[in-house]
Write a structure and sequence with these properties.
By secondary structure, the chain is of the alpha+beta class. It is 40% helix and 13% strand.
């Protein structure tokens, strides 16, 4: 159903692949349902002046590159569902630090690199504890605290909060 909706909404592939940095700095291709127009990356440079987040992340309210179906997928976090394949392949876990794109990872130094000691997750502390519009240094600090104090119970609580966010339609 999701694949058909994406196909009917805009031209281009159903899935989106992006290289991310995983556990121990290993690169892997994260899989998502495509939620943007096919030339979204090419349009990014012209939209850079509208970026609302500092420190390496790129976020725009009402980003014009997001498709109609993509907006719904993101609001419900259904665009992340194909990452279950990354989990099965061992590249990701259900809960863990957010896997960064290469450009973002290049901005992380010192103790904050300890985030790479854990397998990145489909959801994590940053997604449920803060706004997605926080600067990258704050997101990385949240991940550092998560890594430093990791417990299975913490992961269970994050999963429960994620489910609440998804069904509350706020996305994660």
């Amino acid at each position: 159903v999701i694949a058909l909706a994406i196909r009917l909404d805009s031209r281009g592939p159903i899935f989106f692949f992006q290289t991310r940095v995983g556990r121990d700095g290993e690169h892997f291709d994260i899989l998502k349902f495509r939620s943007m127009v096919p030339d979204a990356e090419a349009r990014k440079q012209t939209l850079r002046k509208h970026n609302e987040v500092s420190g390496g992340l790129f976020k725009i309210t009402d980003d014009p590159r997001i498709t109609r179906v993509g907006r719904l997928l993101r609001r419900t976090s259904l665009d992340e569902l194909p990452q279950l394949i990354n989990v099965v392949k061992g590249e990701m876990s259900l809960v863990g630090p957010r896997p960064l794109v290469l450009d973002e990872d290049a901005l992380v130094f010192g103790l904050d690199r300890s985030r790479l000691h854990l397998t990145p997750g489909m959801t994590g502390p940053w997604q449920v504890l803060s706004s997605t519009r926080v600067p990258m240094n704050e997101m990385v600090a949240i991940d550092y605290l998560y890594v430093a104090s990791w417990t299975l119970w913490t992961d269970v609580k994050i999963l429960i909060r994620t489910i609440g966010h998804v069904f509350g339609r706020s996305g994660v």
